[in-house]
Amino acid sequence: MFIRRFACTVLSISLFVMLFSGCMSIKPQAVDAETFFKNQELTNPSSLYGRAYDGRFARFFQTTFDDIEALMLIDLADDPVYKAIEVQKFLLAGTETWAVITERKDGRIDYYYENPDLMDEKRQASVSTLLSQPYFHRTTLHAWMEVVERGLDVRASFIDWENRLIELAVTENRNDSKPTAMLAPVSVHAENPTSFPMVFLDDFNMVAKKGTRLEVWIDKQKRQAVSFPIIVEGIQVYYSRYASDVVVADILSAGKRVVQSEPLAENTPSITGGNATYHLAWESGYPEIKQVQFTHHDSSVTLDFAPALPDVRHLKADQTVEGRFILSVNSVHGVIGGSYTVASTDGRLHLMLHPLTSWQPPFMGKKWVSTFHHTADFEHHGTDLLVDARWQRL
Fold this sequence. Notes:
The protein is mainly beta and 394 residues long. It has helices spanning 10-20, 33-36, 121-130, and strands spanning 56-57, 64-65, 68-75, 82-92, 95-104, 109-113, 135-138, 142-148, 151-159, 165-171, 180-184, 196-208, 213-218, 221-223, 237-251, 255-259, 262-263, 270-273, 276-281, 288-296, 299-309, 319-329, 332-345, 348-358, 372-381, 384-393.
């Protein structure tokens, strides 16, 4: 299965950090389940269904994960060419590999990578969409990154496309680290999304100035990092930031496909296939989805539904069910809250999911997650389902 890897864009994360740093505390949790699901039924009445349960179930949700592990981004104060440099750490088949993204002051973005497995045609097309058509370069990269008790330790060196040697090193020595987490608005640049492209930065922090050795050399010239003008969590920081745990996922991927049903005994509490586990409610006599959890290594994305998502294979004609869902990432519950509708009209079945809210600074205006809308149309194909899923921006 193809895994699309989304790069965290310099501009979007920079904007996000600028908006909240030093001005407010970040709240990775946007909704509380008890409040958000208040007045929602947990399951549906059996009257929704028009025929007896046939002993089969279709797992129709698709979510894929990226293999990015960590990232670090530095804004430069005095280089005549470069505005920012981002280092990304990936884990492919148990092996560390690296990418570096550079943003120039003239707006050009270059994407450097070493491992050819990191960049196939489909991934290049995806990254091109998100980074506004960057230039790609396969080259030799020397890099190291980890976050230890005393903070960030990162090294990187490579030669850019104009044959300039670029080297950077950051070593923090702090005892006041207060990492947080956030949903990054990287997806705001996805004009024609084929999924909800989620980038969640866990263990996120800004680089402290006190005790830190930060050096950037470009073409043998030492450059300075931008200092952030606001005190953040009581300390002075650079406008440089990092996350040691990054979860990137294509949630509910679009596309047309046949989903084969599979045998499922009544009252089976859960069923697992691929990277997804479906937790089921049977109060109606049919397998309704109360939760689906997608996992990748030690990362997870979970969708909870109230009421439980109806069994679309057995729904009778002219029925509509409306409910809510909550998306959680790893141990952070309530990252996104949204609504759903399941309808059987005109001989077809429809599922609509609409993210409504996530935490963001008030200065950003309209909730960016609410501009995404998911629709899946279903047709019966024997005991299987024909699924046509898509995303659009509102």
